[in-house]
Amino acid sequence: MKVLFFLTVLTFGCAANASFIGNLKELESTNDDLGLRVFLRKEFKKKKSVGEWFEARKVLTRRPKIGFDVVAAWDRQVTLKESPLEKDASSVAVFLDKADEYSFNKQFDKSFDMYQRAAKFIKKNNRNRVPKGNQLIYLNVLHQMARSLYAQKRFVEALDVYDWIPASYPQIRQVLFEKMWSAFRADKYDMALGAIASQQSGYFSQYLDPESYLIKIYIFKRLCRKKDLNFTLKGIKEFLANLKNGKLTYLDWAKSDLYYMSLAQLIESAGKENPDLRIDIVSQRERQEELKKVHLALKQKFQVFKPLLQMKLERVLGYAALASAQDQDFLKPVKSLPEASVLESRGYELWPANDAEEWLDEIGTHVFIGDSQCAPKEQ
Fold first, then answer.
1. Helices 84-104 & 135-151, crossing angle to 10 degrees?
2. Do the beta carbons of residue 69 and residue 263 sit within 8 Å?
3. What is the Cα gyration radius of the chain?
């Protein structure tokens, strides 16, 4: 797992460099995410005061369209070398390195314990709260805790931990994908379908990971919902066709998760006219060069993933053909789902089968409320 630097709350008496902070504020005031990205890349290898480093970190936290890759990089910026922050980062890294070692050796009970100790250390060192500068590392630790629980087949507990991770986490779509599997393995099909709906939110690409389609098909088959099953099959075929004919572009693919989506949004926002750009801070040539780099990076990633995606989709279609067969004994039908009142009491939102959520703060909180359509067996 990538280890982002752990940050502690400190009071710094050193004065910040006026020009560095001033340029940051000027670029942010004009909503110039591309300019901020270029500016911080140019400043990456320059030693700053810890106060300056924090000011830049705050801007990155406020403006994810700069790119989550820049957030991760800034947490390795040269200012942290031999600073009090690096010492605290090392303390957390001890837990995380040990946890990763246990995970590699499939000792998931021990890896969970280490990840949990890292999470507690972060909060204990900051008066039982998680400072904004520490959010990413803390959420990443929670993510690893949930994975360790899943690996131990403690699916219900894994679901609880996945629910602690907010929609602002850069890998939230991956979290929803893993939450779907946890719910599915725990036989909580309503929550599994809810996690799939969140993956298909308007904030992401309309296309799902192939395994998500497979879970939908399996569950709809067990609920005897033939219409929903056929609609899902149609979606897979459309996805595969658009992948083959080129209608699905690298920018569409990039919206598969917040990490890459931030770069796609950067490209889209850079195309909008902005008369207030500070060309004196970041030149037009520098901006264009950076855009080319981002385009190229996404294109190369897409070219690597495209054949794998096509292979998975074709395989899922094969499984789907088997699951949609008329043999009712192939999958045992599910006659009922949990009562709505029970789900609402746990903080879940309810949604009909043909609806998709549109509110960012609702991502990950939906469950399926469609009824089973399986006919009771005659006595």
1. 10
2. yes
3. 23
Q: How far apart are CA 368 and CA 310, in angstroms?
A: 28
| Beta-carbon contacts of residue 162 (< 8 Å; ≥ 6 apart) | 146, 175, 178, 179, 182, 364
Residue bearing tokens 């969970």: 112
Give the least confident one: 31-35, 84-88, 175-179.
84-88
Sequence-separated contacts (24+) of 351-357 with Cβ below 8 Å: 351/194, 351/197, 353/225, 353/228, 355/197, 356/197, 356/200, 356/201, 356/202, 357/197, 357/198, 357/201, 357/202
For helices 50-62 and 33-42, the axis angle rounded to 10 degrees is 150
DSSP labels for 125-153?
Answer: TTTTS--GGGHHHHHHHHHHHHHHHHHTT
- 10: amino acid identity, one letter: L
Q: What is the mean pLDDT of residues 7-20?
A: 50
The count of other CB atoms within 10 Å of the CB of residue 377 is 8
Q: Would you kindly state where each structural domain of the chain is located, as residue ranges?
A: 18-81, 188-271+280-367
Work out the pLDDT band at 195, boundaries 50, 70, 90: confident
Question: Model's pTM, two decimal places?
Answer: 0.70
Rounded CA gap, 53 and 14, in Å? 12
* Structure tokens given for 378: 């005659």
**Backbone dihedral angles phi then psi of residue 220, each to the nearest 5 degrees:** -60, -35
Cα distance between residue 156 and residue 158, in whole Å: 5
What pLDDT, in 10s, does the model give residues 239-292? 999 999 999 999 999 988 778 888 998 998 888 888 889 999 999 999 999 999
Q: Which of 366, 379, 86, 345 is nearest to 199 (CA)?
A: 366
Sign of CA dihedral 201, 204, 206, 212: negative
- Tell me the two tokens of residue 207: 């296309």
Q: Are 294 and 287 in contact (CB under 8 A)?
A: no
Structure tokens given for 151: 């690996």
- Give pLDDT tens digits for 61-94: 888 889 988 888 887 776 766 655 555 566 777 8
Residue-wise pLDDT tens digits, 205-228: 778 888 888 888 888 887 788 888
